[in-house]
Design brief:
Layout: E1 7-11, H1 15-26, E2 32-36, H2 40-51, E3 62-65, E4 76-79, H3 95-111, E5 117-120, H4 125-136, E6 143-145, H5 149-163, E7 170-171, E8 174-175, E9 183-184, E10 190-191, E11 194-195, H6 196-201, H7 208-219, H8 221-229, H9 234-248, E12 253-261, E13 270-279, E14 282-286, H10 293-313
Parallel strand pairs: 1-2, 1-4, 2-3, 4-5, 5-6
Antiparallel strand pairs: 7-10, 8-9, 10-11, 12-13, 13-14
The structure holds 1,4-dihydronicotinamide adenine dinucleotide and pyruvic acid (PYR).
Pyruvic acid is lined by residues 85, 91, 123, 150, 222, 232, 236.
């Protein structure tokens, strides 16, 4: 990884891609940003628009619309290309359409000689990340999805509001599918060093029904935002910058990204959101959680949903 010129290639310059690009620029999180989209004119316009903000920023980022050959010496290729949900659609409903999009993208990226890290945001993100790993043939450590990073941020925000505590002091994870089968690992949730389940057992601490309500609010956040404004993009854009920084700064930070899990999910394995140590190698390690029995079966059910949806595609990869 070239720390003197941190280079990102972004594929898909729609709402999510450009929210990420805008947050990258504002946080000075890379040195060179290449924008690629099937709509080349759009990518060119977005590059112009971002460049016109440089004079107001402390960043010296080089930003331009490029080609797949620009991936050759990139450190990270970020994929946000494809279709997004319409009101009422689930993330899994996008699978067939976005698989076709990825078939047209991954080949040209690998043919460029790219040898860095893939970060995938396109939905259904866990399966699209698995497809990226299969089509590219990359070591799964270097292929990660945004997973439940956004859901975890939503959870921490809502818990912070509930307890009136800085969300950065709320330590709790949403795990499994970034989708309808995701859940909160309440047995591991803490306010600073105090288990939330213990707090709920204390008079006046909190109510378990309220925690369940927060979990439901997290699970349905995307649908509610999509109904209100057609798409979600700022939150995911910032989550992606957070992951990008963890990679470039070799942070060894714990983030709930989508990572390859082997074991009982057949030869293909499965990608799902789990807390992982992220650094310049991508996924350094998946952290194993001490889940309760009920949480363990929820986690397996969530992974099984993802595994079956991937299997039904019959990609033969
Ligand atoms: N992982 C997460 O937490 C989240 C994921 N998403 C997902 O991100 C994806 C993008 O969403 P939006 O940006 O809102 O959609 P959008 O429609 O605004 O942008 C998609 C972009 O992809 C481009 N594109 C389509 N096919 C392409 C191809 N073959 N090659 C290159 N570019 C191509 C389009 O031209 C468009 O610019 C969706 O799948 C959405 O569901 C959205 C929010 C959160
Ligand atoms: C759209 C989506 O996946 C989200 O906002 O969570």
């Amino acid at each position: 990884m070239n720390t003197d010129n941190r280079k990102v290639v972004l594929i898909g310059t729609g709402m999510v891609g450009m929210s990420y690009a805008y947050a990258l620029l504002n946080q000075n999180a890379c040195d060179e940003l290449v924008l690629i989209d099937v709509d080349k004119e759009r990518a060119r316009g977005e590059a112009m628009d971002l460049n016109h903000g440089l004079a107001f920023s402390s960043s010296h980022m080089k930003i331009y619309a490029g080609e797949y050959k620009d991936c050759e010496n990139a450190d990270i290729v970020v994929i946000c290309a494809g279709v997004a949900q319409k009101p009422g659609e689930s993330r899994l409903d996008l699978l067939t359409r976005n698989t076709e999009v990825f078939r047209s993208i991954i080949g040209p990226i690998t043919e460029s000689g790219f040898n860095g890290i893939f970060l995938v945001a396109t939905n259904p993100v866990d399966i699209m990340t698995l497809i990226t790993a299969k089509l590219s043939g990359f070591n799964p450590r270097r292929v990660l999805g945004t997973g439940t990073a956004l859901d975890t941020a939503r959870l921490r925000y809502m818990l912070g509001e509930y307890f009136n505590v800085d969300p950065r002091n709320m330590h709790a994870y949403v795990i499994g599918e970034h989708g309808d089968s995701e859940f909160v690992a309440w047995s591991q949730a803490m306010l600073a060093t105090k288990p939330i389940l213990d707090l709920c057992g204390e008079t006046g601490g909190c109510r378990i029904e309220d925690m369940k309500d927060i979990e439901e609010q997290v699970r349905t956040s995307a649908q509610r935002i999509i109904k209100a404004k057609r798409a979600t993009y700022y939150g995911i854009g910032m989550a992606m910058v957070r992951i990008t920084k963890a990679i470039f700064s070799n942070e060894n930070s714990v983030l709930t990204v989508s990572a390859m899990l082997r074991g009982e999910y057949g030869e293909s394995g499965v990608y799902a959101g789990v807390p992982c140590i992220v650094n310049r190698n991508g996924i350094q390690r998946v952290l194993s959680l001490s889940l309760s029995e009920e949480e363990t079966s929820k986690f397996h059910a969530s992974c099984q949903t993802l595994h079956e949806a991937y299997d039904e595609l019959n990609l033969g990869l």
